[in-house]
Amino acid sequence: MQVSVLQTVLHRLLLYVRRRRLVVYGMLFLVGSAFFMMLHSKVVLATIDTHHLQGKVFFIEQGWGGDTPQTNGRSYIMVMNADGTGSRILIEKFDRVLSLGWDPRLRSLETQAWATASMLADTHDDNLYTLKVEGRNASDVSVSKIERPLPDDFRTRFYEPIWDYKDGHSIPIPNTRSYTTRITFSPDGTRIAGLVRVLNTESNQTKLRLCVVPTDGSAPESCNLSVEGCGAQSPVWSPDGTKVVFAGALKDDSMTYACNMMELYVYDVNKKTSNQITNIVGPRIPENNHGVVKSGMKPGYFHKSTHPQWSPDGRWIAFMSFGGIFRVHPDGTEPQLIIRDGYFPTWSPDGSMLMYVIKTGNPIAITGPSDHIFVAHADGSDPTEIPLDDKCLSRCSYEDLNWAE
Asked: How many domains does the chain have?
């Protein structure tokens, strides 16, 4: 009897100790969880002081529904200080801007745009310009000179007719011509990279190819014949001038539309070889989606890696694709998704930060909230919205950011 009572007492004591131990463990778990959440909240809440951002930013703005010039459905070249202040139209003579790039060596903008007829006589067939920029801040920046960057014999290499789409076929419009893409000068100014329509003698078809042309004509033209380029995208030179990154078709065949299934390639100008550096797989292509693949091709998956930007030191290439903004080394190693849902990245002049666009709502809607511009460290950490001093009164979209000194 005494043994039974003793066993009962010991059993209850053991249960009490176990319960107390669970309580202690539970308390320790709760304390640890709270500490982790506190640390995590600090990371999330950490921000960049945008008031200290240096330089200026050129970008394309298009909007609808307001009473300012850039809200009438047209697109303009804008300038603002890097902290978001002083936003304004840089030049009103261009009201349909398709692409925009910054040349730090020449301190000029390279743009593919249409100008008003009052400014240049033959704007109906020439839409590539360089804009010489003067001034340090957004308030005093001005365009001192507008030029066509190439003489006629060079321009014709990059020309093609303006195409119309009728009855399922692309038809050239008579007596029209435009550049296939924005061309870009090498850092030393001796060569030009752009897309040229090249005839394939075996298939008797013409396709856009990345070509490098010397400005003095002393060396033969170099073209990458293995990858079809996308005319809606622009090639970008590496800071040392030895390579060009561009968006090209994932498959170089007659069944694929280059601009709907494209990845990034790096073309070595000296070796005349190209290397695919990205492979970001998007959603599956619906059956019979002939806007992406031609009839007879089995649908696969979307690929949309675009708008590459070299870091100033040449170590990274930032670009946008499905999921957001990525960065990758020029040899294709260490691809990283660093900013979710970001668009149009641009490096700060010192390479320590990235500025980018966050789209809101339907990207093609004419009503709704405007886009937002953010800044983050080069690895995507501490994303911070830049408060814009913008006069856009309705929905505005931002593209092709260029962060300059």
From this structure: 2
